[in-house]
Amino acid sequence: MTPDERYPIERFIMTQNDCYKANRRRTPTGIQVHSVGCKGTSRDRWRRWNTPGLKKCANAIIDTKGIMQTLDWDVRPWLSGSGSKGNANDTCVGFEICEPSAANDTPEAAAYLYGCVLYLCTELCRDYGIHPREIKCHSELHREGRASNHADVNHWWGKLGTAWKPYTMPRLRHDVAEALGVDLMEGANIMDTILKKGSSGPEVLELQEMLDGIGYACGTPDGVFGNLTAYAVKSFQRDNNLTVDGVVGPATWAALEKATEPEDPEPAADDHPTTDAETVTVSRDDIQAAVERLEALAQTLRGWL
Hints:
34% of the residues lie in helices and 12% in strands. It contains 9 helices and 8 strands.
């Protein structure tokens, strides 16, 4: 991990925590983003997790002082809980973000905390070959069936009227991809993805850009499937004789793909193969007629002179 003095890492490994003692190691293929769920705390409060008998532990905790690493990055944390399709802890390194109190949740604090998250996610993706698409928050993992039912960090990030309005999970994935110089949609089979209101991620951003490109405005593309996107999807479905349910499945994807295919340009009226010297065929009669016209013109000119 490349050090960055703006985002210092304090190494405080929780050797007394049962998660550390379990020492289940694997190479992470994803990142889970959590927040602690209570306002006004710092890393100092969460040092108490360094004790036996607790059934929770993160790989790191972030606050306005920087990053505190609490487990080795390849140690399986106890963060997400299980969902209907498994447990994100099995594949994802994870960290908690300390939420400032309302009075301290300033644009400067938000920018710094987001900077810490962006730096840490970028470095983890680089070190472990994790694709930025695999950065998910707790609520996104729950929707995928890989975590317990919690709202973080979407109860906080991107919230209107707060310093966190500019910061969303789709933006984080985009910014990490940009920092790494990778295509966020590389390797994605978007046509197999089912999207509906509440979905988020690069696939939603792609959907919004496709709709916007053919005149179905979704507002500013942000990777979040909200009311405007749902309205645009239903309008497109209605105009294309599809089931108007606001759910983007195989039939809607196929219609979108067809609608956004570039049309072959019509050739211009004078578009035809030419050579530097075109061959022109004329008859003897044409030549004779041209000579006679020239002779008549010459006769007229002599009369004027």
